[in-house]
Predict the 3D structure of the following.
Amino acid sequence: MRNALLALSGLLAAPLAGSLLIGLDRILTARLQSRIGPPVLQPIFDVVKLFGKERVVVNAWQAFSAYAYLAAVAVAVVLFFIRSDLLVIFLIQAVGTVFIVVGALASASPFSQVGGYRELLQSLACEPLLVLVIAGIYLETGSFAITAVDRWPQPLMVRLPLLFISLLFVMAVKLRKSPFDFAACRHAHQELVGGVLTDYSGPFLALIEVGHWFETVLMLGICSLFWADNWAAMLALAGAAYLTMVWLDNVTARMNWRLLFGYAWLLGLPLALINLFWLYRG
Amino acid sequence: MRIWAKFIGYARFKSPWLLHFDCGSCNGCDIEILACLTPVYDLERFGIVNVGNPLHADVLLVSGTVNPRNRIVLENLFNQMPAPKVVVAIGACGLSGGIFRGAYNVVGGIDRVIPVDVYVPGCPPRPEAIIDGVRLGLEKLRTGGVTLDSKDGPIGATKENHPCSRTN
Amino acid sequence: MHFQRVKPVRTTEIIVAILILWPLAAAILCYLVRSDRLRNKLVPVTGVLLTTAALLLSIHIPFSFGLEPSAEKVIDVLILSIDILLLGVILFIGLRHRHRLIPILAILQLVLIGFNEFYPVPTPRVNPIVHCDALSLLLVLIVSIVGSVICVQALAYMKTHEAHLQLSASRQHRFFAVMLLFLAAMNGLVLADKLSYLYFFFEITTICSYLLIAHDATPAAITNALRALWINSFGGLALVAAVLWFARFHGINAFQQFKADDFRSAVWLLPLAFMCLAGFVKAAQFPFQSWLLGAMVAPTPVSALLHSSTMVKAGVYLVLRVAPFFQDTFLGLCVALFGAFAFLAAAALALGQRNGKRVLAYSTISNLGLMFACAGFGTPMALTAAVILLLFHAVTKALLFLCVGAIEQGIDSRDIEDMRGLYTRMPLTALITVAGVIFMIMPPFGLLVGKWMALEAAARNLAALLMLALGSALTVMYWARWAGTLMSDPLDGRFRPESQPVLTWGALGILSFGIVALSTAVPWLYGALLQAAAGDVPAYSVHNGAMENPTGIFSVFPLCLAAGFGFILALGAVRHARQARIVSPYMCGAQQPEPGVFTGPMNQPVKSEAGNYYFAFLFGEERLTGWINAGALLLLTLLIGGTLR
């Protein structure tokens, strides 16, 4: 019963929180560029408008991909709220990425195709990092279940600081933040038009937007596990991480995939490994 | 149900995404359009984002005179936009063909090819005028269904019925 | 040991006899009576019989039985003489094709066996000779059911295949005889407890593999068949060395006599390492992978049956069988590292491939590597992961191979780029292939349950964990890319399945349905069979359809329910979306009516191309294979040398 309530609250609260966060992000970004920026509810207006648009499809299977993506990330968030297994959550959110890519590749547009491959490259770069982060949490707490993190007497941050930095890499990629936003971009338009999202349109694009809200909350949730002592610290840590992302988004330029791999695998992986090595020895 | 429809109408009003297409203008109008996106005018206040992709766009801004070659592109882009959508013609050339009107190699104003909802005159129009034009278009978007649904058949002038069309 | 009276024949003995002797008899019949009609009946009948027998067997496990001394003696002599005959045949093949290594390897095995016969050491008589526990049963079920499905589908495949080749005389009698013989040998291999019998069946599978790869008799087929023969002979040599070592130095000639406490010194661990080596060769691990890649020239049912779902599993079976004995030793650690390395390396090589069958081959090597890694960790959790992977990989890979076979016959190509937009040409096959890909990389399907367990089991080993994490990411990339490519064009008009033989649809349907059903039933299967197959200690407890232990929890039933619900919802969305307005993909407005074509210079149509990222400069075979083989050789040296401490 408790789990059902938690799951329901996750399903309702996560998209709301995600949309407001993205709204805040847009305002902050605007202020950093000395603009006023859109209202905080702008992401919700965008999505409602998209739901109200004509259904236009390039390939009917894109509808399948969009729904499957949303379902996958929603299930991942629900599992997070009922404090299930982190590795399972990781595997399920990866399903979402795969479906977005399959949907993008289901269109003959070169923009969409190249966007799809880039999305795959992004996940190739950051998923090993996420696995290592999760393994680090396991080594510290002795379990992959989030309940173990809740029970853990001291903040994970104390023993896993480098893994937290690796997690920030993953977060930048998952939140489509510059400099790692080369598969699709939220601001202005880029050399790939809409990248992986080019040929999703109307309601299907709306589904993907909602999925992105879920994903944002999921990533911040994983972030907050690093200081799970009390609610204030969790919120503060997640908020700080998100602010870092917004800041990073505004001060960096887009990379190409070689640089992404350079940063993720030559900087992120060693950092994670060093931290894991402490844990093995410690 | 009506509340939901109203909400969608409001959301349409609050979140117009632009597609800007240059039908061979002298770039005067284009510079002014892009100036609207700068911090000085900050179009994002109105939720406006330049998406550059007809599949995502609600508002089509067109500048310049249509010629036989790019009219196909214009039609294609318009057809790819999901309804409801609004077309805003920018500048003298987009309105009527401007100084090129009647030339052997141009078709004329945008409305010879696709239906236009808002005309923004000027050579080039000021950013304020463009913003005002888009806002006028949004009023039409809110109620929805102003522009013909592209399911309803050929739109505006077609290759067959236009004297200036390409005939190869 | 003790004298046995003449006893009534038991059910288990009859079932085992059916499992081994019936396909053998059917094979002989197939070879002698060259009639299509007979074959078209005999193969399905064999399939049904084997399936029934395998299912019946599951009621009786665990059991073991021996034979009367006189009968066993006769069989021993028979098997020994066939062994020598087989090695003679291998020698002959090697000499006829002027191959340098095959004769040497065959002669070495002959010398070892001959030496053992001329200078025998007294060993205790083996009783039982057949032992069937849950692990054997799992393999028997895979061989008998998946194998039968593939053999029956091959009836349809080979007809088209021979029509393509325009042969003057059909050679199908030979093909099916070998396929059925192979089923018999596999069943024998997993049921035999006596090591010399194991070796005998091992050799038969080698010969079967050779015959089937060489079946089309093209120069490429012969070359690759010879390569498979010499490499597998090397595995045979390692196995015969291990078997004789155990017999001569320890007086052991059956698995049941192994005791975990003995395996603490080099004299015990070295033959065990040789056995693992034989397993690695059979499972085409690096640096022995080249035979499996070459084997892809064979007709697709062969690839599906021998080279992905069953024969290569014999290697895993062998290692899993001895896994309890190298637990917590340096050998175990080396096996784990070796397997994890193969998992990563094969995934990287698969990423650089655009030949569909080679991608499947590398993916097979990769998954087998993961199973070896799990066997090496040796914890109850890891062993559970290994058996789950074993089961689901067999079924899923069989499905994917049959799909690729059907595609190849449809479009005359194995190139992934040629499969672009296959959905418009072969919609149903394309969809089933995509489903197969989904079964490979997505939870809640069985392979991912296995991978989840493997990752959780590996988390205590930093090097292995890193390799598994990188390998999994690469795996997702090459599969997702393929699935997307298949769907890359929209279908105009109504969905109409293309025409395929009923047998092909039947096989694809049974396998897909089987994967879904088995995946949903994982918690139940775990209680009924898999837990026993993985060892004595239960690694997980099952609550409300969730597999859980203190390390983690995977809610299989709820997630399957969610996946099913999501699938129906998404399918409904597709039906709905089919009524939506279809627009052309975004091509800067210059698109033409045909998909993927835009108006180029001089108003000429230009086909847009966005080639898959294959990273040939990074993951190409030429670039990586040498390094990977070197790395694998180092690990193997470490593995064998490490036992000598």
Summary: Chain B touches chain C through 15 residues (CB under 8 Å). The two ends of chain B are 51 Å apart (CA to CA). Confidence is low (pLDDT under 50) at residues 146-168 of chain B.
